[in-house]
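It is worth pausing here to work through a concrete case rather than discussing structure prediction in the abstract. The textbook approach is simple: state the sequence, then state the predicted structure, then interpret. We follow exactly that order.
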Amino acid sequence: KKAVVLGTDSTIQSAIYQKGLKANGQEAVHKDHWQLAVNQLIAAIKQPNHMQHTQALWQKLYEEISQHADIIISACTDLNAV
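Step two, the predicted structure:
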């Protein structure tokens, strides 16, 4: 199975989740523009009255990722808001 890890730049760069996936026979999929979208999403979540904007950002990102991966791992507590 293919998995996408969503988190901050430092979480992704640490590769801790990706190493765990690989050790369990799963492939981690990453695209730079997904990371840019995640960064935007995290920043937007921290703004007041963010729900409408963040839901739209999340929906667009989710639709694209779901075409390339079977699993989405939320590796950032801020992303729990979406």
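Step three, interpretation. The chain has a mean pLDDT of 93. The chain has one domain: 2-81.
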